[in-house]
């Protein structure tokens, strides 16, 4: 059961990563790579990716 809970959390985190990545791409396409919103989103994605790697 504990393993299932870990797997569910990992899958939820992966979903958040995919959504944040898509948001960042959308922002970059509409506002440019150097836009503050794009950079903020990229930094948030970095945090999610770091969190994912620590859980492995």
TrEMBL record:
One of its GO terms (molecular function) is protein dimerization activity. Gene3D superfamilies: Helix-loop-helix DNA-binding domain. One of its GO terms (biological process) is regulation of sporulation. Pfam families: SpoOE-like (PF09388). Coiled coil: none annotated. InterPro entries: HLH_DNA-bd_sf (IPR036638), Spo0E-like (IPR018540), Spo0E-like_sf (IPR037208). It comes from the Bacteria. This is Stage 0 sporulation regulatory protein. It comes from Cytobacillus oceanisediminis.
């Amino acid at each position: 059961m504990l393993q299932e809970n870990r797997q569910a959390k990992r899958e939820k985190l992966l979903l958040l990563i995919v959504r944040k990545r898509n948001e960042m791409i959308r922002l970059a396409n509409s506002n440019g790579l150097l836009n503050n919103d794009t950079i903020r989103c990229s930094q948030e994605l970095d945090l999610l990716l770091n969190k994912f790697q620590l859980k492995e």
